[in-house]
Structure formats: structure tokens, C-alpha cells
Amino acid sequence: MIHTWKEYILIQKAKNLLKKNYSEYGFTSPAPKLYPFQWNWDSGFIAYGYSFYNQQKAMTEMRTLFKGQWGNGMLPHMIFHENHPEYFPNHDFWDSSTNPTAPKIPTSGITQPPIHAIVVWQIYNELSKKDNKKARKFLEEMYPKLFKLHKYLLTERDPENSGLVTIYHPWESGLDNSPRWDLALERIEVPKGMKYKRWDTQVVESDERPTKKEYDRYLFLVEELKKHNYDDKKIYKDYPFKIKDVVISSILYKANIYLKKIGQVIGEDTKQIDKWLDYFRKGLYEDSFNKEDGFFYDIDLVSGEQIKNKTVAILSPIITGILDAHHIRQLIYDLDGIGFCGGTSCVEHAFPSTGEKEKEFDHERYWRGPLWINMNWFFFKAFVDQGMSIEAEVLRECVLGMIKRHGFCEYYSPLNHKGFGAKNFSWTAALTIALVKE
Ligand code: 9WN
């Protein structure tokens, strides 16, 4: 619901930004200069925003994205519908054709957080208010694609049946430059003097982006994946970066709840989804939960250790709905105690990507401190679902205030709320619409 005239203006600005970032190929770029292609979870958030006022565009965004789905079910993190030769790493670097199940359209060879079933359900909800038949048809069209994606993630990426998804690259996490990956990257030896011309640091300040040391490792890992033909069985046997990602796994659990709802509406047998939900509930507490401090961590499969950095990831199971209001409050107040939000209330202050008391904390460098709207929106939604209306409203006010003052930035400093990264970032605009309307 729109509360004020200022919120109405904010929504108009958000819609204008999304219009500007729209490509004639039927997708919305995250930010045309820095990220000129279609990105996986970005399109999910963007379609979520469209669902409130243009369901046709929301459906197109999803349809264009799934054109990139591989035969094995993997949904790539980047799809190269257009040519932007200046960009690096481009489609020729990824060379997805080394995997026989890759589609004709060039794509990257790794995935991103699977938020799409949540988005498809939201589009259905909005569309069915006007045209129930069309809305149901959309579910029938999307269900097999979504099911295939979830099956890929919970078989090829979880041969252990732990309900937790294994990632092969920091870029798969969506929280790419998080200190969570530092130790695992540290032990990877790369050839000396790797030469390449980065695109990102030509567009935004280099101290807002990953260092050369990190970038060398990102590129080296892609070379390794190519050597393995992006074949999960080969990668699982022998590859240096394999991590059970608690954020992706929590998002997938929530997405499976919506996939089940979708399946039920169109009369599918959803027993397999129930199994996946059970696996996660078990894996979350057996593998990711740390009894000593009560937080949830990723698991590094190469070292066998939990990854103990205090980042936004340790809260991510809040997204699932498994944790009740009492448990969520306990987690949030424990965080206040360890200075995660610098000594103020995390809700009033919004959740940074990395705790302010962490030694790796950097308020301007992406995923190493800044506040991101997508993670805060997930928590806002969880608070609403758990009836935590005060926390939801305080967080919403804080996030919208930041956007009103500094525009639709890619991320914001938790110290002064100033914006960094791309200044016309699509998911910030799309989720602003959601935050106002939900
Ligand atoms: C690499 C597009 C993407 C987001 C990611 C974010 C960033 C890319 C990059 O931008 O990653 O995929 O070049 O840094 O970390 O979450 O999807 O907005």
C-alpha cells in the first residue's frame, strides 16, 4: 500500500529506471553499463517488481531468462542475448559449448540463487486477480522448468541428499565478494602474472570492487570448470572450491514451498518436493547450525569445516519460515550483542552484508560490508510472515529512507547510508516497488 506522496514519487522513479534498463531482447539489465547482459537472480527480483504493475513484462522477463536453461536443468547466472564486446569476462571466455547440454544461446557456465519459483507464484497471484485462466497457464508453462532447476540443484549439486546446495564459484552465491570465501580462495594457487582487462573497474571505483588477487582466482576457477566441461560428476570428484552455501539453500527451501503450491494448483504430484523439504530441515540443523553460538554457517567441503565469518549469511535461514518469531528475535538481538550492526539495532540500522566488527569489514567494497536491498527485503518479508510487524516496519522505513536520500544504488554504506556501485540498479528499483506495495 502506498502511504505517502513521497512513496508515490519513489515508485514512479523506480518504474522509469526499469523502463530505461529494459532491452529490446525482452529482459532488464541490472545496470546497462556495468552489467549489460541478463543476470539470473537480478531478473527474478526485477520480475517480482514488475508483477505489481505489468504482469506481461514480468512473464517476459522470466521467459527470456529460461531460454538460457541448460538441458541438465542448470539456469546460468548470465545470458548473453546481446553482444557487448567491451565486456569481460564475455561469452567467449565462458565457452558454455564445452558442455553438451548447454543451449545454443551463449551463457555462463555457473548458476545463481534460485528465487524464481517465489517470483512465478507472485506473478500468478497478481495476474489471477484479472485473468485466472492466463495466470494458471503461466504456472503450467513454468512448473516443468522450475522443477528441472530444483532437481538439478538437489541432485547434481547435492549428491549427499543434505538439502544443502554445493557451489563451485563465489559468483554462484550472488554474494560474490563475501569474506565467507576468503579461506577457500586463499588455498588456491593460480599462475603468476595472470593478464586480462577487467571491465568492472573501468566503470566503478576499484576500491568498491574485488581485488586483483580475488579476480585472478575467480578466473582461474572458470578455467578449471571448463577443463571439466562444466560436468558436475567430474567437478565433484576433483575441484578446489566446493561449498555448501546456506543462503542459496535457504532460498531454495523457500522456493520449494512455492513450487509445491504451484504444483498443487495445476494438479501435479508433489511428493518429490516434500522429500527435498525434509532433507533441508535435517541438513540445516545437522550440518549448518552451530550449537555453540546458535548461528548458521556454510560448510567448506574441501576442508570439512564450517565457515565462521559473521556475515548476513548466518541469518539467511530466517528466509525459510522454519524459524519462528521468538528464534528470529533471539538471533537478531545476539547480533546486536556482537556489534554486527556497529552497536545499534540491526533492524533500525538495516542488515549489512558483513558485520561491522569483522576484521574484513569494508563499508564501500561490495559484499564486504555494504547494505544490499535484496537481503534486507528477504528479511522484511520474513518479519511480515512471522507477524513481526514492528521489526518489518522499522526495517522498511530505514531501507526506503536510504533509497529516498541517495537514489537506486547497487549498495549502501552501513556507516553513512551513502550509495555505491552502479547508480541505476534495477533490483533496488524493483524491490522498492515491492517494499512500498507489500
Ligand atoms: C558477477 C549483477 C550481479 C549480481 C551479483 C553481484 C554482481 C557480478 C559482478 O552483479 O556480480 O556475477 O561482476 O560482480 O555480486 O549478485 O547478480 O547485478
Structure description:
With 438 residues, the protein is mainly alpha-helical. The chain contains 18 helices and 10 strands. A 4-stranded antiparallel β-sheet has the order 5-6-7-8. Strands 1-2 form a two-stranded antiparallel sheet. A hairpin with a 5-residue loop joins strand 7 and strand 8 (306-307). It is globular. (2R)-2-(alpha-D-glucopyranosyloxy)-3-hydroxypropanoic acid binds at residues 30, 35, 39, 41-42, 77, 171, 174, 176, 200. (2R)-2-(alpha-D-glucopyranosyloxy)-3-hydroxypropanoic acid is lined by residues 30, 35, 39, 41-42, 77, 171, 174, 176, 200.
User: Got a strand count?
Assistant: 10
Main β-sheet, spatial strand arrangement: 5-6-7-8
Structure classification: mainly alpha
The main pleated sheet reads as:
4 strands, antiparallel
Q: What compounds sit in this structure? A: (2R)-2-(alpha-D-glucopyranosyloxy)-3-hydroxypropanoic acid
Rg measurement, Å: 20 Å
